[in-house]
C-alpha cells in the first residue's frame, strides 16, 4: 500500500518597521493534491521525505518552487515538486489581506 503524507509548516514572519505585521503562509488541501509514485522509484523501493518551498500568489497560483531538502532520490523530489506546483493553494495573508507568500511543504513517500 502506498502512503503519501503531506505536512505543512506554518510560520509567522515579522515585518521590520514601526508597525509589526503578522504573515500567514499559503496552504494547500492535502486531500486534493497528490503525487503519483514514479515507476522507477517503486521498482527500486525508494522512500523518503522531501521538503519544498512554494511562492504562492495572492490568487493561489504557484509562482516559484524549490526543493529545500531532498528525499535522497531525484525522481521522488521531481515528482513531488511537479505535482504540488500544479495544485491550487489557499493564498497567504499579510495584515489580513491576501498576499504573495511562501509555503513550506514536506511530502513523505512511503511504501
UniProtKB/TrEMBL annotation:
Subcellular location: Cell inner membrane
Matching Pfam families: TonB_C
GO cellular component: plasma membrane
Membrane topology: Single-pass membrane protein
Signal peptide: 1-21
GO biological process: protein transport; transmembrane transport
Presence of keyword Transport: yes
Keywords tagged on the record: Cell inner membrane, Cell membrane, Membrane, Protein transport, Signal, Transmembrane, Transmembrane helix, Transport
Domain TonB C-terminal stretches: 22-111
NCBIfam families xrefs: tonB_Cterm
Entry similarity comment: Belongs to the TonB family.
Protein name: Protein TonB
Source species of the chain: Pseudoduganella lurida
Lineage per the UniProt record: Bacteria, Pseudomonadati, Pseudomonadota, Betaproteobacteria, Burkholderiales
